[in-house]
Amino acid sequence: MAEIRGQSTFPGGSHPPENKQLSENASIQVIETPKQVAVLLSQHLGAPCVPTVAKREKVTAGQTIGTSDAFVSAPIHSPVNGTVKDITLQSHPVIGRTTAVIIDVDEEGNEPKQPVANQFTKDFDPTQYAVEDICKAVQEAGIVGMGGAGFPTRVKIEPNPAMPKEVLIINACECEPFITCDYRVMMEWTWQMMAGIRLAARAAGCNKIRIGIEDNKPEAIKLLQKCVAELGDVGDFTIVPVKTKYPQGGERQLIKAVWGKTVPTGSIPPTIGVCVLNVATCAAIAEAVVMGNPLTHRAVTVTGKAIAKPGNYYVPVGMRVEELIEHCGGMTDSAARVVLGGPMMGFAIADLSTPLTKTSGALSLLTKEDVTKAKYNKQQTPCIRCGRCLEVCPEHLNPTKIAHAVKYSKLELAQDYYMSACIECGCCSYVCPANIEVTGYIKTGKLLVARAKKKLG
Ligand code: SF4
Ligand code: SF4
């Protein structure tokens, strides 16, 4: 059979080692329900939720435990039957600390939730669901972008006459090294994901669907092409293999590769008629609309050379990192760092009681050797103005100038260099021969600007 080669891509980017072999062939395993979960009330972009339950209150699996009236937000649900032990601050993988509902799990009646993929077939008919019912179900289920961004999905898909959407682009790239949970969703929950894609296209009013997938996943490409062929006459729906290059799964980079259009800097995809959703998000949409199930569990890749049993696991949102590590056979003696996410965009976490969220697609356990090789552990030398960071930047920024501005506390200058347009992909740090943590400076600069705005506000 001819090799599948993606032709389309975006300018810039890099090729870090993929390291997907550790878990790509491991099917998604259901794990035991933990004895306690800590469900964070801020798991999405937008307003955090406020608790709708109180200490010592009984909760059931799927019950709403946090909501917000804000337009951009998503409710939070309990993944288990249990009793609220406390409502208190907990470590958050990205924002430091935030409020969480701590639930002691009932000893009886907490068999692990099973995936629902076997309830979907190619005969699924999205037209039996009204647009407003799809949007309502997605909102009530608390679905957010599960690829990492966490933007509330209802806001993305609901019709907006001022900004009509033409094409739904499905992000099936999973370009971050090590991570394979989306690949397994495509391979194992295929018809469920397809149902979610067609429901989302219906809600968004998109008459074209494109699945953008990197050409390092030939089995998934063949499977998806076969599924689209089996669907028959469902309109303009095609699979678009794209070049394997990091960060091909960045929203703007994917749109460029698949649709040939550029989202203007500072703007959003709907302004050019595009809606982008991740594959796991689509599977969650199908489960919410058809079964009425909220987003309480997700597929998570546990990977790296420092975990005993790497694989892909079906995990309740709110499970603590330390318990998931334990379930996967524990860390090896060589373990040196735990990263929530992948090595390029993930967050190193020191507090292993941090709970997983709806956007936690991976847990990477790195060895001493991995960490020693990392840029932040190497001697940093002055910038030699080689320009490599400019060449790889997928957003056409001047990373070294932004980093210098931040380093010397010139935040206004950093903003003049479009610091806010940085997608924090890490490519500039990855290629820098002077070992400068360019992305680190930029992340710090963005944080300082956000804090200053909050103070002024
Ligand atoms: S400046 Fe931002 S977007 Fe550009 S390469 Fe660096 S991290 Fe990526
Ligand atoms: S890659 Fe590093 S050394 Fe080269 S210009 Fe950028 S910051 Fe300077």
Describe the secondary-structure layout.
Layout (H helix, E strand, L loop, with lengths): L27 E3 L5 E5 L9 E2 L6 E2 L4 E4 L8 E2 L4 E11 L3 E10 L25 H10 L12 H5 L9 E5 L9 H8 L1 H15 L3 E7 L3 H14 L4 E7 L8 H9 L14 E5 H13 L5 E7 L7 E6 L4 H7 L7 E6 L6 E2 L13 E6 H6 L14 H5 L6 H9 L3 H6 L10 H5 L6 H19 L1
Parallel strand pairs: 1-14, 9-10, 9-12, 10-11, 13-17
Antiparallel strand pairs: 2-8, 3-5, 4-7, 5-6, 7-8, 13-14, 15-16, 15-17
Helix pairs in contact: 1-4, 4-7, 11-14
The site of one iron/sulfur cluster has 14 residues, from helix 10.
Report on the structure:
This protein has 457 residues and is of the alpha/beta class. Helix content is 29%, strand content 20%. The chain has 14 helices and 17 strands. The strands form four sheets. It has a six-stranded mixed β-sheet with strand order 1-14-13-17-15-16. α1 crosses α4 and α4 crosses α7. The longest helix is centred in the C-terminal third of the chain and has 19 residues, at 438-456. The protein is globular and about 60 Å long. One iron/sulfur cluster binds next to α10.
Low-confidence stretches: none
Major pleated sheet: 6 strands, mixed
Outline, from the CA principal axes? Answer: globular
Over the alpha carbons, how many angstroms does the gyration radius reach? 21 Å
Q: What would you give as the CATH superfamily of the domain at 117-291?
A: NADH-ubiquinone oxidoreductase 51kDa subunit
Distance between the termini: 60 Å
CATH topology of the domain at 117-291: Rossmann fold
Beta strand count = 17
Under CATH at level 1, the class of the domain at 117-291 stands as Alpha Beta
Query: Would you identify the CATH architecture of the domain at 117-291?
Result: 3-Layer(aba) Sandwich
